[in-house]
User: Which sequence fits this backbone?
């Protein structure tokens, strides 16, 4: 249920309980019968613009086993698409995407109870885009037939079925970013009194069978759930509900629409030989991180289709279900049942404290000019843009210092340099110190998008000299880090190497000899190496008496045998392919790549540090990536194959610390 298009909306509505349908038919254009193609072809056509995490509306049955519509390219602008494959709708304010029976005649009408409405231009009947119920006009009280759909992503759709139908993405279809604020016309039509069983904007999976409706809260819900609605057994996973009965594959004819976009009924041709096989009732369970049935061990995708095993290609019967916001579902189905709300998980408890705010979202990030640098005292005097007086700032011991597009040292800055700084805040949100400082060239490199069609003239960064300078410094003085733990009586300690040491630090292996730098160098042996977010965690063994000189929190440098230049220059991390458990492999990837979601405004922690540093409560990309890597591992792919696939899908931003303004 993770792929909900939940868009932030304003506070609870101010309108009366029973309002007429508002009329705003000209607010959003309708797209009618666009030219069709296939996902695999359109992925090539717009390869530089389609994100792996691109929200997509997918229909999951019929010709070519369904299709996919990238929301930014179509539904963000055209809230209703009237087509021979279905009438597809998108309502970010009520948090849903949806499909109804094919027709060319539906257009946006307005809102009712905060929910998008659409009108059949042939007879004027107005329908709810969520329930399909006729609200006004000659067919009031009737309900539109639904098309099996689910909210997914472009990369999931491609992995699931690259030959699925897509619309031709000609140049006129420009991506329109998803709205970040509610439409006031929608908000004004929300009922004053909203069912208090859940919070108004809480995401739910709404399920309807005949006259019975039930809402399943999404937050904290299990990945797989079984239930009964009336006399019907249901199974819920992947953001949809299904009957636990599998039917053999069928081949469906392409649509042959009449003037209204309606095609003749097609029962489909049973595969492989046209012989009809009775459906099989199944019992579902979670197995190795996937959804499988107990009877045949077939793995099932979120579209209710067998991925492998005896029932590969078989399908489950989709039940009318849609992910939306509680206020919308309860307004459409006032008598709805509500599933028992899951108890808070450990992740939910984290969210109570962390919220949705990412670290970088809060930090002031001004530009300024260096007036003086005191490397020994670890301070810098800055005149920040918009201020009249320069101020002396402490620089955090482990602050990120960026010079010439690479890591550097504070002493490399000089008076007059233009810099970009991030200011650390105290609990009262007062700036107290510098957490990151970058010269002008580094700031331009950090904020440069390599996928942009034109490279700004201000970006002309060559970090090669700085890389060589830092390499010589590491050889002479060692790599910087912080002691996280020192056991005085065992001689073991944990050292966290700074971000800059990712490659050299992770080139180390158990048994390597290293040396801690100080007034008297301390020899040590590497016991284990593991990534910890953008840092590298080393478990070292030293003599007990020597360990007594060290304290947790102490800044220290680590000298190692100089690695081959291959460690710096290889396109792959030096510890790629080492023996790890499945979950260790998953977390290794998140600690080794940067988020490539291309969110702007300098807010995404996982872009500048690594994806492992993203707060999963504030963004779906970390957990989406975990699931994607688990799937690759389940298919037997090596770390190198997974790395190559991710890089192909996500592009060069995956490899570098960056932010997009």
Assistant:
């Amino acid at each position: 249920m993770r792929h909900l298009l939940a868009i932030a909306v304003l506070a609870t509505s101010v309108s009366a309980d029973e309002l007429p349908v508002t009329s705003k038919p000209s607010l959003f254009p309708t797209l009618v019968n666009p030219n069709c193609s296939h996902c695999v072809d359109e992925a090539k056509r717009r390869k530089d613009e389609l994100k792996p995490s691109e929200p997509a509306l997918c229909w999951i049955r019929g010709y070519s086993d369904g299709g996919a519509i990238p929301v930014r390219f179509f539904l963000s602008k055209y809230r209703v698409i009237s087509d021979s494959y279905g009438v597809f709708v998108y309502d970010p304010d009520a948090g849903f995407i949806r499909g109804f029976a094919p027709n060319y005649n539906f257009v946006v009408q307005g809102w009712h109870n905060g929910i998008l409405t659409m009108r059949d231009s042939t007879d004027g009947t107005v329908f709810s885009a969520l329930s399909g119920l006729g609200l006004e006009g000659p067919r009031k009280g009737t309900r539109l037939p639904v098309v099996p759909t689910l909210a997914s992503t472009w990369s999931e759709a491609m992995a699931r079925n690259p030959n699925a139908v897509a619309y031709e993405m000609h140049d006129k279809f420009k991506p329109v970013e998803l709205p970040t604020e509610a439409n006031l016309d929608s908000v004004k039509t929300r009922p004053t009194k909203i069912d208090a069983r859940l919070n108004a904007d809480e995401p739910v999976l709404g399920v309807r069978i005949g006259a019975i409706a039930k809402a399943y809260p999404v937050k904290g819900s299990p990945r797989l759930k079984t239930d009964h609605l009336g006399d019907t057994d249901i199974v819920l996973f992947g953001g949809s509900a299904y009957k636990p009965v599998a039917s053999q594959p069928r081949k469906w004819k392409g649509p042959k629409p009449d003037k209204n976009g309606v095609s003749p009924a097609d029962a489909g041709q049973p595969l492989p030989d046209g012989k009809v096989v009775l459906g099989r009732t199944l019992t579902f369970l979670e197995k190795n991180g996937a959804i499988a049935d107990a009877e045949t061990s077939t793995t099932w995708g979120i579209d209710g289709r067998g991925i492998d095993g005896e029932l590969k290609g078989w399908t489950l019967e989709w039940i009318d279900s849609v992910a939306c916001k509680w206020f919308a579902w309860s307004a459409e189905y006032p008598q709805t049942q509500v599933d028992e709300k899951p108890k808070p998980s450990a992740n939910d408890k984290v969210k109570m404290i962390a919220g949705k705010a990412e670290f970088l979202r809060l930090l002031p990030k001004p530009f300024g000019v260096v007036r003086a640098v005191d490397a020994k005292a670890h301070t810098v005097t800055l005149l920040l843009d918009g201020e009249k007086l320069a101020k002396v700032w402490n620089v955090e011991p482990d602050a990120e210092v960026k010079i010439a597009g690479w890591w550097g040292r504070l002493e490399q800055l000089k008076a007059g340099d233009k810099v970009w700084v991030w200011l650390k805040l105290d609990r009262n949100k007062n700036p107290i110190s510098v957490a990151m400082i970058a010269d002008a060239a580094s700031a331009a490199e950090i904020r440069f998008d390599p996928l942009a069609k034109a490279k700004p003239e201000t970006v002309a960064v060559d970090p090669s000299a700085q890389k060589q300078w830092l390499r010589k410094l590491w050889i002479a003085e060692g790599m910087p880090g912080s002691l996280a733990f020192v056991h005085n009586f065992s001689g073991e300690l944990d050292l966290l190497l700074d971000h800059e040491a990712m490659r050299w630090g992770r080139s180390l292996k158990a048994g390597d000899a290293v040396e801690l730098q100080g007034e008297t160098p301390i020899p040590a042996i590497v016991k284990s190496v593991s990534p910890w977010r953008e840092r590298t965690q080393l478990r070292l063994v030293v003599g007990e008496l020597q360990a007594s000189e060290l304290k947790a929190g102490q800044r220290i440098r680590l000298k190692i045998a100089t690695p081959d230049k291959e460690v710096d220059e290889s396109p792959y991390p030096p510890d790629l392919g080492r023996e790890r458990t499945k979950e260790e492999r998953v977390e290794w990837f998140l600690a080794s790549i940067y988020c490539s979601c291309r969110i702007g405004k300098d807010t995404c922690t996982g872009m500048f540090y690594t994806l492992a540093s993203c707060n999963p409560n504030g963004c779906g990309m970390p957990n989406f990536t975990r699931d994607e890597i688990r799937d690759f591992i389940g298919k037997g792919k090596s770390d190198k194959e997974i790395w190559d696939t991710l890089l192909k899908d996500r592009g060069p931003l995956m490899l570098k610390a960056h932010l997009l303004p």
In short: The first strand starts at residue 30 and ends at 32. Residues 1-19 have pLDDT under 50 and may be disordered. The CA atoms of residues 69 and 269 lie 26 Å apart. Residues 464-477 form the longest helix (14 residues).
